[in-house]
Write a structure and sequence with these properties.
2 domains
Length: 374
């Protein structure tokens, strides 16, 4: 008994002599600046189930006046609509079962060019896009990546999305370019096009009927559009402040997106002039032999161009003679009506044959990618 008591006493004495265990204090985790000044848009209206998911965060139910930040992912459920207004007044309305991700967004209110004004979105499902201030700049750099290809935007109001087993694009105002792995098609105001897959060439753009436009618009129509329009107008007074805060955020967090962050001697010049001056300065600093090499390359290029022009003129002359068509050097006013009609018909047939060949080539690529043998 005495031995057990002595052992317990020694253990207590040793434990008391040990230093007290220090409490571990975790350093404060810095908050992501995008949560404060990376705001690029606002939710104007929500109809049905819709969520917003930030980078590395949990999905949150979308609500009216909810801020939208860079790289956020917006998703809609069945029979839902989501209306987002960006700080440059770009409008995007998502239809049911759609997804939107903002990959890149740069807007400088003081730059009248597209050098520091560009945006890239990824959208799946049906949507309506109305360009804001970025899309109305000179040569805008705005793209929407879709499951079938890329849509280049030029100051536009258009609809796009899957319908009737095809991916359709209809333009209400402006112009867009639909580019897939099979080719590219320009769609102007009042026209529409469609494509079956990413390896197919888009169908030639044509004038769509009013009924077809109404069907596309019905896919993204808001039930409470008047109320959403009032909220959008009420938010305009806060938009300039959002733009200034976001511009400072881009210069701090994403300086590689800007082409002229630290200009020298370029004050008061537009973005295009700054880029041209910087390029001329780089060329002047090049090696002395670069000018001679550039001259030789230019002469070689001009030689091949002249050969190509001569061959094309000879080939075109022979083909037009074979088809019984008048030569291009003749005055068009002297053509008879039947000759004009025959020339137009031949041009349509050639365009149709080219489109069918490209479509078949795209179908072969798609079948090869799917691993199907025919």
């Amino acid at each position: 008994m005495m031995r057990k008591f002595c052992f317990l006493a020694v253990f207590l004495i040793c434990a008391a002599a040990l230093p007290a265990r220090a409490q571990i204090v975790q350093p404060p985790v810095p908050q992501e600046t995008a949560e404060k000044d990376g705001r690029i848009g606002t939710v104007i209206d929500v109809e049905g189930p819709a969520v917003l998911t930030p980078v590395g965060g949990m999905p949150a139910e979308a609500a009216v006046n909810m801020p939208v930040y860079l790289n956020d992912i917006a998703q809609t459920g069945a029979h839902a609509r989501l209306f987002i207004l960006f700080i440059d007044n770009t409008n995007v309305v998502l239809s049911s079962n759609a997804m939107l991700r903002i990959d890149k967004y740069v807007y400088d209110p003081d730059d009248a060019t597209s050098a520091d004004n560009n945006a890239t979105y990824t959208i799946e499902g049906a949507f309506e896009y109305v360009s804001g201030l970025i899309g109305h700049r000179k040569d805008p750099d705005v793209h929407v990546e879709t499951p079938v290809g890329s849509i280049g935007i030029r100051g536009t109001d258009f609809w796009a999305g899957p319908m009737d087993g095809q991916y359709q694009v209809a333009v209400n105002e402006g112009r867009v370019s639909l580019k897939t792995d099979g080719g590219e098609e320009i769609v102007n105001k009042g026209e529409g096009t469609y494509v079956r897959g990413m390896f197919d060439r888009p169908a030639p753009a044509e004038i769509w009927s009013a009924d077809r436009f109404r069907r596309m618009a019905a896919e993204v129509r808001l039930a409470r559009y008047a109320a959403a329009l009032r909220r959008m107008h009420a938010l305009q007074s806060r938009q300039p402040a959002f733009r200034e805060v976001y511009r400072a955020y881009v210069r701090r967090a994403h300086p590689h997106w800007l082409r002229d962050l630290h200009p020298r001697g370029m004050e008061g010049k537009t973005g295009a002039e700054r880029i041209r001056q910087e390029w001329n300065a780089r060329k002047s600093e090049a090696a002395p032999g670069r000018a001679e090499k550039s001259r030789m390359e230019k002469d070689r290029t001009e030689m091949w161009r002249s050969r190509w022009r001569a061959w094309r003129q000879q080939h075109s002359h022979g083909m037009r003679e074979q088809q019984g068509l008048p030569q291009k050097n003749q005055q068009r006013e002297s053509l008879r009506p039947e000759d004009r009609q025959r020339e137009k018909g031949a041009a349509r047939r050639r365009a149709r044959q080219t489109w069918e060949k490209d479509r078949e080539r795209g179908a072969k690529k798609r079948r090869a990618a799917e691993g199907t043998r025919y």
